[in-house]
């Protein structure tokens, strides 16, 4: 029997792959056999070196995803440099914190443009390639705030709630075209994105007390879910938002 989680010969585009969850996912996909196009505004040199050390091909694609300007080029470069595009992981994202009464238009637009608008248009660009080439897998990175309200992060909550809806909509439209669109909703993961929360003694304690697993997650904790959703093991999984949260939502 062949291994349904084997990604040998597949090309994965991972955005925001230089650090954090994106790096963890890129390395897990490579360990399962995929070649990786590491997309982002900061060159993902370390990630590329680690993927190559695993015996897989890896290329850096420079792109600032705060606008949709680079999305077509990202797909073209991945295809040119690695010969295809079978897996897209929309991981790049930002967060801005402020009371909703004081929240600025700039903080709204920056987060929604990066976390939601660019994700849709990169899905569209990759989707066109996948439809023309026999299908593919798209994995969006959602959040606990796809399900919950959060506090002092209105544009982030709006963007990640939007990711949940977008994931289901694209699954509805593209399932019959051979594309699986799903999402991973990480719990509280120790990365740059959560540095402020980790450093806040009170919030850190409150968060830890609520996580049944009793610890923050790591970028590596996201790897297995990504490999699953990127693989043929998930061929009949569509529009699902897979929480990888140490039990946070179960509490
Ligand atoms: P991170 O360490 O801050 O990584 C964010 C990544 O996104 C970085 O590679 C960053 O690149 C990239 N990025 C941001 N803006 C970009 C832009 N305009 N163009 C291209 N790349 C851009 O945070 P993380 O925790 O790994 O976050 C990854 C994803 O997981 C995000 O979508 C985040 O919302 C989501 N998430 C995180 C958690 C958590 O607890 N950490 C929980 C739920 C969801 P630079 O290094 O150049 O800034």
UniProtKB/TrEMBL annotation:
MF terms in GO: 2-dehydro-3-deoxy-D-gluconate 5-dehydrogenase activity; 2-deoxy-D-gluconate 3-dehydrogenase activity; NAD binding
Coiled-coil portions: none
Record PROSITE patterns: ADH_SHORT (PS00061)
Phosphoprotein as UniProt keyword: no
Record field: catalytic activity: 2-dehydro-3-deoxy-D-gluconate + NAD(+) = 3-deoxy-D-glycero-2,5-hexodiulosonate + NADH + H(+)
Entry keyword NAD: yes
Keywords: NAD, Oxidoreductase
EC annotation from Swiss-Prot or TrEMBL: 1.1.1.127
One protein family per Pfam: adh_short_C2
Domain of life of the organism encoding this protein: Bacteria
Family: Belongs to the short-chain dehydrogenases/reductases (SDR) family.
Protein name (database record): 2-dehydro-3-deoxy-D-gluconate 5-dehydrogenase
Organism per entry: Sphingomonas kyeonggiensis
């Amino acid at each position: 029997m062949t291994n349904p989680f084997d990604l040998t010969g597949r090309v994965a585009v991972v955005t925001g792959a230089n650090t954090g969850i994106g790096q963890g996912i890129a390395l897990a996909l490579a360990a399962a056999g995929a070649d990786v196009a590491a997309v982002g505004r900061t060159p993902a040199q370390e990630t590329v070196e680690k993927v190559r050390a695993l015996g897989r091909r890896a290329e850096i694609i420079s792109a600032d995803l705060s606008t949709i300007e680079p999305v077509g080029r990202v797909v073209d470069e991945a295809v040119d440099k690695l010969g295809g595009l079978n897996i897209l992981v929309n991981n790049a994202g930002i967060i801005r914190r402020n009371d909703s009464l004081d929240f600025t238009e700039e903080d709204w637009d920056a987060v929604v443009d990066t976390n939601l608008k660019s994700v849709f248009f990169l899905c569209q660009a990759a989707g066109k390639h996948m439809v023309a080439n026999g299908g593919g897998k798209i994995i969006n990175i959602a959040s606990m705030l796809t399900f919950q309200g959060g506090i002092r992060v209105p544009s982030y909550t709006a963007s990640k709630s939007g990711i949940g809806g977008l994931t289901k909509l694209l699954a509805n439209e593209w399932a019959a075209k051979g594309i699986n669109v799903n999402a991973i909703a990480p719990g509280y993961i120790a990365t740059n994105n959560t540095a402020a929360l980790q450093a806040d003694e009170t919030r850190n304690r409150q968060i830890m007390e609520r996580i049944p697993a009793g610890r923050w997650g790591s970028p590596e904790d996201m790897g297995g879910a990504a490999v699953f959703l990127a693989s043929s093991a998930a061929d009949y999984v569509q529009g699902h938002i897979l929480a990888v949260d140490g039990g946070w939502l179960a509490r």
